[in-house]
Amino acid sequence: MSSTPHRLLLASIHDVSPRFESEVDRLLDLLAPHVGSRLAMLVVPNHWGDAPIVPGSQFAARLRSWADQGIEILLHGFTHRDEAQHSGAANRVRARFMTASEGEFLGLSRGEAAARIANGRALIESVTGRPVDGFVAPAWLYGSGAREALAQAGIPLAEDHLRVWAPATGAQLAWGPVITWASRTRLRLASSLAAAAALRHAPLEVLRIGVHPPDVRHPALVRSIGETFRIATRKRRPSRYGDLLN
Fold first, then answer.
1. First vs last Cα of the chain: how many Å apart?
2. How far is the C-alpha of 188 from the C-alpha of 241, rounded, in Å?
3. pTM to 2 decimals?
4. CA–CA distance, 160 with 29 (Å, rounded to integer)
5. Do 93 and 101 touch, CB atoms closer than 8 A?
6. DSSP code at position 119
7. Do 74 and 133 touch, CB atoms closer than 8 A?
8. Strand residue runs (E) in 70-159
9. Per-residue pLDDT tens digits for 49-66
């Protein structure tokens, strides 16, 4: 069945880090038959503060090779770990229980967010030899400080769970929930399977699918990911985030 040109599919691998190198390889093998190199890697410069990307390392060489193949490289926080003191009860719940303390940019001040964006960007660009293609906050959570810093960072696009936008102008580039999976509890696993089964048929102009390293440890999730991509690519054109800017 031919693709519908105006309907796009955007695929991304989250939490790309030396810590999850083998899982990233498995995700690449899972996605490649459906999208080839038309996917994004969301790269964490130093996952939880003890898995740094070291320039000149084997992993750094692989990251540059992926970028050379046309895979988009997006900055995904700096450590992915939320160590902020949250002032509101709602944010405390979101940070601790809904995201397992991984919403790094939810409680940062503008200055701290700007510093982490600048430092992470400098590291990744020194490794790949090219500008980062975008920014995605860990757990898709942005506080006001992060949004203010991002608007001044000169990064072309960003995304949260519901949309993709141009930070400098606020212009919306795509809208619709990301299909993603969760496996921390049986309930989360079951609900994410049900959500994926429904959303992969959604009549969205741009369908986003994001996968995470722990997904490959659960056969039910691997099957669901494969089926989701098989269905999505029947009528959608695998694309890059940068295509939204054109």
1. 26
2. 28
3. 0.92
4. 26
5. no
6. H
7. yes
8. 72-75, 134-136, 158-159
9. 999 999 999 999 999 999
What phi and psi, each to the nearest 5 degrees, are found at residue 159? -140, 150
Q: How many CB atoms lie within 10 A of CB 42?
A: 25
**Using one digit for the tens of pLDDT, what is the confidence trace for 188-199?**
999 999 999 999
Question: Does residue 73 contact residue 40 with C-beta atoms inside 8 Å?
Answer: yes
Residue 24: strand, helix, or coil: helix
Burial-class residue 195 by CB neighbours within 10 Å (0-12, 13-18, 19+).
middle
**Pairwise CA distance, residues 110 & 183, whole Å:** 32
What's the Rg (C-alpha) of the chain? 17
> In whole angstroms, what is the distance from residue 33 CA to residue 226 CA?
10
Q: What is the pLDDT of residue 83?
A: 75
Task: Round to whole Å and give the CA distance between 89 and 96.
Answer: 11
DSSP E strand stretches across 167-241: 172-175, 206-211, 237-239
Strands (E), the chain: 8-16, 40-43, 72-75, 134-136, 158-159, 163-165, 172-175, 206-211, 237-239
Is 48 in contact with 81 (CB distance < 8 Å)?
A: yes
Return the closest-CA partner of residue 80 out of 44, 133, 36: 44
Q: Using the Cα atoms of residue 101, residue 217, residue 64 and residue 226 in order, give the sign of their dihedral.
A: negative
Closest to 49 in 3D by CA, of 138, 135, 128 = 138
